[in-house]
Structure formats: C-alpha cells, structure tokens
TrEMBL record, chain A:
It comes from the Bacteria. This is Peptide ABC transporter ATP-binding protein. It is a peripheral membrane protein. The keyword Transport applies. It comes from Devosia limi DSM 17137.
Automatic annotation (TrEMBL), chain B:
It is a peripheral membrane protein. It catalyses: glutathione(out) + ATP + H2O = glutathione(in) + ADP + phosphate + H(+). Keywords: ATP-binding, Cell inner membrane, Cell membrane, Membrane, Nucleotide-binding, Translocase, Transport. Its EC number is 7.4.2.10. The keyword Transport applies. It is an enzyme of class 7 (translocase). One of its GO terms (molecular function) is ATP hydrolysis activity. It is found in: Cell inner membrane; Membrane. This is Glutathione import ATP-binding protein GsiA. It comes from the Bacteria. SMART domains: AAA.
Length: 278, 248
C-alpha cells in the first residue's frame, strides 16, 4: 500500500473536571488506507470521541492532542476552523447515530442533500437536482422524486438513515466515518443500510471507519478491527480472525452475546470490578 | 389458567388502528416473546395490557380476570411493566428509595424500608445506591432499578418492553441473567417485546412474530433455534439477524 489515507499517532482527548483533566482517549495510534476499519467497544470506551477528533469536532473545553494526525498529506492538527470546513463533508464525512436528531426538521430531504453538495461545489441547479435524485436512488430509495420533497418527520427511521448516508456521500468524500449508523434501526433494516454503505464504499474506493458496539456486525462489514476499552486499544485484529481474539476483554464481549441457537443457561459477564469505581 | 389471554384485540391510537385481531395465550410461568419490526404494534400490545393504551376492543384477561378499560388496581398488583429506556423511565428528581417506595405507597403497603432493601439486594444493587439519584447510576444499574420498581408489588406477570436494547452487550448479558434468575426464583411470567432474536432464544420459551399489527406466526423457541419457522416474514427476520449472528 502507498502512504496511508489517515495516520493517527498517540491521539489523546481530555476533558477538564473538578478533579483535574479526565482522559477519555489515552494515546491511540492507527493508520488507515482505502479499507474498512471497525472500532468496537462499550459505551464510554472513547470510540466515538476518536471518530469526532479526526474531524476536529470536539469543542472546548475538550482538548485533543496527538503526535501526528494526517489525512492524505494534510496535517489536521494545524488546520484552522475555516480550513477544516473545506475538509469536512468534502473529504471526510460522518454518518451520525440517529436520523431523528441529525436531520434538519424544517428542510426537505432533497434540499438538505443538495446543501451538502452546494457547500463544496458550484454547480448548475439542474445538475444538482439530477445528482440528488441519482444519489437517493443509489441508497435504494424507490421513487426518489417524491421522497426528495418530504420532510424528515415524514420518513421512517431506516429511510432517514439512508437520506443521511446520501447526504454524506454526495460530495464523494475519501473517508467516511460511520458512528453507530444502525443502532437506532430495526434488525431487518440494519442489514440493508449497512449493505448500502458497504456497496458505495467498495465501488467508490473510499476509506471507512465503522464505529459500533456490535462485534459481529463489525466483523461482518470490516477488514480490520480495533477493540477499545477505557480509552485504549486493547486489541487489533483481522476481522475474519475475530473468533480467535486473544485479549480477555474481547473474549468476554464475544461470550456475553446471546446466540440464536442458545443453549447456555447463563451468559458469562465481564468482571467489571476492576474499572467500575462507583 | 393462562397468565395473559388476549382475544381479538384491536387497539387504536385516535383514528389509526394499530393492531388487528390479536389472539394470544401466555401460560402461567411461561416466557413469551413478541418480535417484529418497528411499527408492527408489538409495544402497543404491552401498553394495552398495562392500561396505557385505553382505546381497544376485544378482550384482555390477566390471570383469568378480564381487564377493564380504565386504571385497574387489581391488574397493577399482578402485572407490571419495564420500559425500554432506563434513561427516560426513572424520575430524575427522586432518589432510588423514593422511586421504589412509590408503588408501595400507592397501594397502601407498609414495611417499606425493609422491602426496598430486600428488592435492591434481589436485583443485585448495593445498598449504598439507595439514596442516590438516577443520574448517578450507569445504564445497567438504572435498568436494574426499573426492574426492581416493577417487582415491588410482587406481581406474577412482567411486561418487558425491549428491556436490553438501550444497553451494551456486556451489560445486556447481566440484565438477561438477572431476568432469568428472577423468573426462576419468583415463578414469574414474562411477556417480552424485542427485535433481537438471540435474546428470544436465550430468555423465552415461545414467540409470536408480528407484522403490520397482525400475528403472522406463533412458534416455540426450539423452532427458532433450529431455524424451523414457517411464515416467510419470520424467515426474513431470521435471515436478517442470522447475517449478524453467523459471521462469514
């Protein structure tokens, strides 16, 4: 592989508290090419913070430091807010967890998708319209012309999430960060939405960071997995070899999941006395 | 005698009719699951049994007694509900002690202090949590409080509305173990709503698959585990979660 798309070394995120700064991400390092990377961990493991810090979306008083954080040769740490705005959306974009809270309720779906495009490129109106409709079609929405005129409250959760994916992919970014893209959705819709992301990522040759707490889901859709616990990467492995994971934390997470052909009488639980202070 | 028996139940929210002719029988001591996609009306069925969706026709009986449309104290004593989101279902300005004592006060039961302590122990919470507020607890601990609150009146039937879907996998395992242990110890009947089929395989004996407000199939957990469901929609659901369960 040539030089990596994203190179993060010793990333740290901390927030001040009355008892001194609390580090939520404690020095993690990874590189990403044009591949699919999964980040898994429980709530509070710092996985979302990692995703957000790549886009510099962590606001004061949060503090992000790193030895190196480069994206396609650009040093993200030294970019100003204005320069970041040119990168966000156009080069790196992010799919959020819940379409209900992340879409603008007073704009139609079509307007919102067009906005993502217009912000980064000047195009004639007709072409914008065509691209919005073809993008909606790409995320497998039947009858895109009708859906483009709807408001977010008029579409279902699964459709809302597809609209958000359309919005994030229309500027054709190089890297897509998907932060729990399906945890607000039904099982039956989840697979559809992930297949769409997967399809678009593979055909357009983008890099993907999929953040989730669902180990099986991540192992199914990614090439490589980082397992995070309390701000640190505890294990890195190839997705297909997840079942042979070595770290006790990863093994614990895998075992805690009920299976469809469940025969165990009791599920093994993680011994959290080590880190649950209160 | 069946714990919950529904016959020809049509539930409406205003003009919209949500369920169509639901007929179900849950035996005493059984753990029964309702599965289906969002909007299939599975939570609405629970809400109607609990008395939160009063606009229904048909018949609901709990432990052999028909339920009225209004607030029914007799039903409340025997049948309690646990909600999906432990972040939203506990009163933010009441301590755990107040939350757990409230059902006792409403039903005029005494001996509240010892009962609260015993219940905290039963759901595996340390007694130092008793005078804390919900925001001082983690999600799993809050769900334990919600389960404890439902159990305060010593009901026989528990309605569980997606009890673990807001929780992490490892915490989910703890709560599922807790629910299983409580059922064994207290001989409870569960009616569980979920869209997670592995949870059904772990916790339940039978399941009903719902779609568009209708029951499309009633099957045993054995059938689910061996993949021997019949209705095409159930197989679709099975395939959707199978894709995640069996990594390729």
């Amino acid at each position: 592989m040539s030089s990596p798309l994203l190179d993060v070394q010793n990333l740290r995120v901390s927030f001040p508290s009355p008892k001194g700064p609390v580090e939520v991400v404690k020095g993690i390092s990874f590189t990403l090419g044009r591949e699919r990377l999964g980040i898994v961990g429980e709530s509070g493991s710092g996985k979302s913070m990692t995703g957000r810090s790549i886009l510099k979306l962590i606001r004061s008083p949060g503090k992000v430091t790193a030895d190196r954080m480069t994206f396609d040769g650009i040093d993200l740490l030294s970019q100003s807010e204005k320069q970041m705005r040119a990168i966000r959306g156009a080069r790196i974009s992010m799919v959020m967890q819940d379409p209900k809270f992340s879409l603008n309720p007073v704009m139609t779906v079509g307007e919102q998708i067009a906005e993502a495009l217009v912000t980064h490129a000047k195009l004639p109106r007709r072409e914008i319209n065509d691209r919005v409709l073809s993008m909606l079609e790409a995320v497998r929405i039947n009858d895109p012309a009708r859906v483009a005129k709807l408001y977010p409250h008029e579409v279902s959760g699964g459709m809302g999430q597809r609209v958000m994916i359309a919005m994030m992919l229309i500027p054709e970014p190089d890297l897509l960060i998907a932060d729990e893209p399906t945890s607000a959705l039904d099982v039956s819709v989840q697979a559809q939405v992930l297949d769409i992301i997967d399809d678009l990522v593979v055909t357009k040759g983008m890099g993907l960071i999929l953040i989730s707490h669902d180990l099986n889901l991540v192992s199914h859709y990614c090439d490589r997995i980082l397992v995070m616990n309390s701000g640190q990467v505890v294990e890195e492995c190839i997705a297909s070899e997840l079942s042979q994971a070595k770290h006790p934390y990863t093994r614990g997470l895998l075992a805690a999941m009920p299976r469809i052909d469940e025969t165990r009488d009791e599920l093994p639980v993680l011994d959290r006395t080590a880190w649950a202070g209160t | 005698m069946s714990a919950i028996s529904l016959s020809d139940l049509d539930i409406s929210y205003g003009e919209t009719q949500v369920t169509h002719g639901i007929t179900l029988d849950v035996a005493e001591g059984e753990s029964f699951a309702l599965v289906g996609e969002s909007g299939s009306g599975k939570s609405t069925v629970l809400r109607a049994i609990a008395g939160l969706a009063p606009d229904w026709t048909g018949k609901i009986s709990v432990l052999g007694k028909a339920r009225s449309h209004g607030v029914d104290r007799q039903v409340s004593r025997q049948c309690q509900m646990v909600f999906q989101d432990p972040y939203g279902s506990l009163h933010p300005r009441k301590t755990i002690d107040a939350i757990l004592s409230e059902p006792l006060a409403i039903h005029g039961l005494g001996n509240r202090g010892p009962r609260v302590e015993a219940m905290l122990a039963a759901v595996g919470l340390d007694r130092r949590f008793r005078f804390r507020f919900p925001h001082q607890l983690s999600g799993g601990q809050r769900q334990r409080v919600a389960i404890a609150r439902a159990l305060m009146l010593e009901p026989k039937v528990m309605l569980l509305d997606e009890p673990t879907s807001a929780l992490d996998v490892s915490v989910q395992a703890e709560i599922l173990n807790l629910l299983k242990r409580l059922r064994r110890e207290q001989g409870l009947t569960y009616l569980v709503v979920t869209h997670n089929l592995p949870v059904v395989a772990f916790l339940c004996d039978r399941l009903a698959v719902m779609r568009h407000g209708r029951v499309v199939e009633i099957a045993s957990a054995e059938q689910l585990k061996t993949g021997k469901l019949v209705a095409p929609y159930s197989l679709e659901l099975l395939a959707a979660s199978g894709a995640q369960v069996v990594p390729t």
